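Students often ask what a 'structure token' actually looks like in practice. Rather than answer in the abstract, let us consider Transposase, a protein of 50 residues. Its sequence is given first.
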Amino acid sequence: MTRNFLNLRNYGYKDLNHWMEKQTYLAVGLTMMAAAELGNEATPLEATFV
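Now compare that with the structural description of the same chain:
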């Protein structure tokens, strides 16, 4: 099922990289919320790799 989903994103919609980027942002956001609950401040940084 996962392979079919990724194939659909990669070959059907051709947006697999965009989808994976958004999934990463979700994980980073939840990690930052958990850090805030523990009293640690965090700031997301974004970099472009070529």
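One point worth highlighting: DSSP finds two helices and no strands in the chain. Ask yourself how you might have guessed this from the sequence alone, and why that guess would often be unreliable.
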